[in-house]
Design goal:
InterPro entries: Flag_bb_rod_N, Flagellar_basal_body_rod_CS, Flagellar_FlgE/F/G, Flg_bb/hook_C_dom, FlgE/F/G-like, FlgG_G_neg, LlgE_F_G-like_D1. It contains two helices and 19 strands. With 261 residues, the protein is an alpha+beta fold. It folds into two domains: 102 residues, no CATH class; 135 residues, no CATH class. The chain has a four-stranded antiparallel β-sheet, with no helix packed on it. Strands 11-12-13 form a three-stranded antiparallel β-sheet, with no helix packed on it. A hairpin with a 4-residue loop joins β11 and β12. α1 runs antiparallel to α2.
Length: 261
């Protein structure tokens, strides 16, 4: 019975939906995390009677066809790149982005990764690095005698060196933005990679060309809404249960047919 296969595709799709929701909930406290959603499409249809086919020599036609679908499939899990709430941390090397930009991270293999996680540290050489120890691109080094490091909304990094009474500019943060942010490839560790779907990175200084400005002493939180995720989880559970009931009902119908024979 075809209903068994159709219902099984529905159960499989809802399993994938629950996996996506569970990942969102698991990352509710992940800095800069962007939630995903599952998108579905119906499968091919068996055309038994085509709409518009003629039913007589006088030109009358079928107003609505007879077609049976084959179920559903998961086609994409795009990220929702909306702005997350910013939270104060009181750490001078924590930076939040308010806008569409991404920090650029230099990977050991020469590639550039992109992240919304602005929790930076200094390595033994004073270079600003992320939590994996990968340096910012372009690199910024803060001397050991630097005091009062400040990062302006447009990305200018300054500090007082030694006994100086005027700040010294140490570098300039830059941000990248993409035409299609949802096309970025997730690589884990709060980082993304450029793809053909995302388009090339458009690099600018903060507060220009739509990249957004920077907020020192703050971090961007995940854009996961717990109420929305729980509601989506309940809906996915109900859909899964209904598909399971279809399989149970179809099985009972087949059993009844077998007994008649």
């Amino acid at each position: 019975m075809k209903a068994l296969y159709i219902a099984s595709t529905g159960m499989s799709a809802q399993e994938r939906n629950v996996e996506v929701i569970s990942n969102n909930i698991a990352n509710m406290r992940t800095t800069g995390f962007k939630r995903q959603r599952a998108e579905f499409q119906d499968l091919l249809y068996q055309q038994i009677t085509r709409a518009g086919s003629q039913t007589s020599d006088q030109g009358s036609m079928v107003p609505a066809g007879l077609e049976i679908g084959s179920g559903v499939r998961t086609v994409a899990t795009p990220r929702v790149m909306s702005q997350g709430n910013v939270s104060m941390t009181e750490r001078e090397l924590d930076v939040a982005i308010r806008g569409e930009g991404f920090f650029m991270i230099q990977l050991p293999d020469g590639r550039t990764a992109y992240t919304r996680d602005g929790s930076f540290e200094r390595d033994p050489n004073g270079t600003l690095v992320n939590s994996q120890g990968y340096s910012l691109n372009p690199g910024i080094s803060i001397p050991g005698n630097a005091k009062g490091v400040s990062i302006s909304p447009n990305g200018t990094v300054e500090a007082f060196l030694g006994t100086d009474t005027t700040p010294t500019q140490l570098g300039q943060l830059q941000l990248a933005r993409f035409v299609n942010k949802s096309g970025l490839e997730s690589m884990g560790d709060n980082m993304f990679l450029e793809t053909a779907a995302s388009g090339p990175a458009q690099v600018n200084i903060p507060n220009s060309d739509g990249t957004g400005d920077l907020l020192q002493n703050y971090l961007e939180m995940a854009n996961v809404n717990s109420v929305t995720e729980i509601a989506d989880l309940i809906a996915a559970q109900r859909a899964y249960e209904m598909n399971a009931r279809v399989i149970s009902g179809a099985d009972e119908m087949m059993r009844a047919t077998s007994q008649l024979r």
